[in-house]
Write a structure and sequence with these properties.
The chain is an alpha/beta fold. It is built from nine helices and twelve strands. The strands form four sheets. A four-stranded parallel sheet has the order 2-1-3-4, sandwiched between helices. Strands 6-5-7-8 form a four-stranded parallel sheet, sandwiched between helices. It has a two-stranded antiparallel sheet with strand order 9-11.
Length: 297
């Protein structure tokens, strides 16, 4: 086994791993670093070129954003990963480092609070809501100041107005697809819904030769959910479970093409001129602002 690969031996299960932390309080970071070093890892305060693993407390940091854009080779994990390995190590168990990496991989949209606007078709909204929640974010029907992102299919309406007023991150639908595809939150400014569709997400991240999009393929952690996820990255170093239904793949592809390519025209044609205050029956126009009460109807 090469020297830069972790060895699953009882003495140094993290040998060959170089750790860096972001948005971890200093005291907690020192504790994690000490425990990781006991198991053979190297800890670095700076995100250097030899870092192999990034331990993440929050996603809105320069280190996280740099890895998301420039370092597809770095594994992005929750702090609990070190604790899980240490537990098995202390108990003398055989340690499968790679399996624990999968278990503690940081979800693509970890910690985000996402609201939707401009999506009129109920099936389209349900599909988006499910993608949001299964990838680590929480879906919010009402727009409040606590939201982190507004996924906007149109640049109009009350939700859009107040999201801009409150300086929330407003992103086009392509941002959701690409962030899930990358496995990390991508730079929101590159997905401004005011940008032409062909320019959205340009140079958002370095696509390694083995990395790409695939509809109908699921990551390991998503196979643990009750339903399959229709969007994910293909070609990772680990084995991925493939769906066997080409019909399902075709249907999922159609849904995503509709979302980012101007589809669902029949549903939208009837509602292009509805007033924002009236709502659409699917919760799309509900918001909580200083001039209005939430529309729960």
């Amino acid at each position: 086994m090469p020297d830069d690969e972790p060895k699953n031996n009882s003495a140094e299960p993290l040998r060959g791993i170089v750790l860096c932390c972001t948005s971890i309080p200093p005291e907690k970071r020192e504790e994690l670093a000490s425990r990781a070093e006991q198991m053979g890892a190297i800890h670095k305060l700076d995100l250097t070129s030899d870092v192999t693993h990034l331990i993440v407390g929050a996603t809105d940091t320069p280190k996280y954003k740099y890895v998301a854009k420039e370092r597809p080779d770095v594994k992005v994990l929750s702090p609990e990963w070190i604790g899980a390995i240490r537990k098995s190590w202390l108990e003398g168990e055989e340690i499968d480092v790679r399996a624990l990496e999968e278990t503690h991989k940081l979800p693509s949209l970890a910690g985000l609070k996402i609201c939707l606007t401009g999506f009129d078709d109920p099936l389209e909204r349900q599909h988006l809501q499910r993608l949001i929640t299964v990838n680590g974010a929480s879906y919010h029907a009402d727009l409040t100041k606590s939201a982190t992102h507004l996924l906007a299919n149109r640049t109009e309406g009350e939700k859009y107005k107040y999201a801009k007023l409150w300086a929330l991150r407003v992103v086009a639908p392509e941002w959701l697809k690409d962030s899930i595809g990358r496995g990390m939150v991508l730079e929101e400014a590159l997905y401004d819904p005011l940008l032409p569709s062909e320019d959205r997400g340009r140079d958002a991240w370095v696509r390694s030769p083995a990395q790409g999009f695939a509809l109908g393929k699921r990551r390991h952690e998503e196979t643990m959910s009750a339903e399959p996820v229709s969007l994910d990255v293909a070609g990772r170093s680990r084995k991925l479970r493939r769906t066997t239904s080409t019909k399902l793949e075709s249907q999922n592809s159609t849904i995503w093409n509709d979302i980012v390519g101007g589809g669902f025209t029949a549903a939208r044609a009837e509602t292009d001129d509805w007033p924002d205050a009236a709502g659409d029956g699917a919760g799309d126009q509900r918001f909580v602002g200083p001039l209005a009460r939430p529309n729960r109807g």
